[in-house]
UniProtKB/TrEMBL annotation:
Annotated GO MF terms: deoxyribose-phosphate aldolase activity
Protein family per UniProt: Belongs to the DeoC/FbaB aldolase family. DeoC type 2 subfamily.
GO (cellular component) term, any one: cytoplasm
EC number: 4.1.2.4
Protein name: Deoxyribose-phosphate aldolase
């Protein structure tokens, strides 16, 4: 289904017009979405395809540490792992990005220099988003100035759920401007959006406002990423490209811990959005524990046996 936008400037000119457009999007058949996601999750792939999928998934990981106990030493160790996930295998690809709090950006920028790995930072009063716009803009500008080339922002869920769509739209556009050349990932926090219809509306709102990626979750709210929610977001980016000619990425984050889970998502990307999204530029995993399982399964395919549980570093 392709929505009709006529033209974007009219849709985003007033709260009423934006509300009319968003509520005019096709409703989501919850039973159908759940069933299709479950069906795609049962697909099996050949061993040769599995090896390719594991390496692709590693290249799609945003290796993340977002704890109050984060230290410069922990961030430097995570950056070293991002550069060379398996020290015993130089053929193992590096990850897509490191994602840290703004205060840790200078440390990560130094540790990643010359690696080609992206440096993402959560900003805008992550994870609540409960701060004045000026604070969010200052947070964003500071992270970019310190070296972040990707910003993961959270939308104001209270405003969205109250139907104040133009307020959310204008906040995203302001933060996008504050990003400068850095890419903007817009976190919807789908676990708080209640309905699949809201997930679709928030996805379109974030894309209309200029987001480069739409992201499921902060990882701090349950449920985080799920297959049905990601399916809805993949349909949204596919339809947005068909309608506007602009391509937007998708990032499920939170709760994706195993290689089996990651492959389910890759199958879904291929089936729903198309193989053009099977690239770290357009699909990411927000994860902290997923990488170790991918490395264990990669070793199993190469050697026929699993490495010991202490072979890879714990994050």
């Amino acid at each position: 289904m392709t929505a009709t936008i006529s033209p974007l400037s009219e849709v985003t000119r007033s709260d009423a017009a934006l509300r009319t457009f968003l509520h005019g999007l096709p409703g989501v058949d919850r039973v159908g979405a759940d069933a299709r996601a479950a069906g795609l999750g049962t697909r099996s792939i050949k061993t040769t395809a599995k090896a390719w999928a594991i390496d692709l998934a590693i290249r799609m990981v945003d290796l993340t540490t977002l704890e109050g106990s984060d230290t410069p030493g922990k961030v430097r160790a995570l950056c070293a792992k991002a550069r060379q996930p398996d020290p015993g295998d130089p053929a193992c690809p590096s990850v897509a990005a490191i994602c840290v709090y703004p205060s840790m950006v200078p440390t990560a920028a130094e540790a990643l220099r010359g690696s080609g790995i992206h440096l993402a930072s959560v900003a805008t009063a992550f994870p609540s988003g409960q701060a004045p716009l000026k604070v969010k803009l200052d947070d964003t500008r500071a992270a970019v100035a310190a070296g972040a080339d990707e910003i993961d922002m959270v939308i104001s869920r209270g405003a969205f759920l109250s139907g104040r769509y133009l307020e959310v739209f204008e906040e995203i556009t302001a933060i996008k401007e504050a990003c400068g050349k850095a890419h903007l990932k817009v976190i919807l926090e789908t676990g708080e959006l209640v309905t699949y219809d809201n997930v679709r509306r928030a996805s379109w709102l974030a894309m209309l406002a200029g987001g480069d990626f739409i992201k499921t979750s902060t990882g701090k709210v349950a449920p985080a990423a799920t297959l049905p929610v990601t399916l809805i977001m993949l349909e949204a980016v596919r339809d947005f490209l068909d309608t506007t000619g602009r391509k937007v990425g998708v990032k499920p984050a939170g709760g994706i811990r195993t290689t089996k889970d990651a492959i389910k998502y890759l199958v879904m990307v291929n089936e729903i959005a198309g193989d053009g999204w099977l690239d770290p530029d357009w699909f990411r995993f927000g994860a902290s524990t997923l990488l170790n399982d991918l490395l264990m399964q990669r070793t199993k395919l190469a050697t026929g046996h699993y490495s010991g549980p202490d072979y890879f570093t714990l994050d």
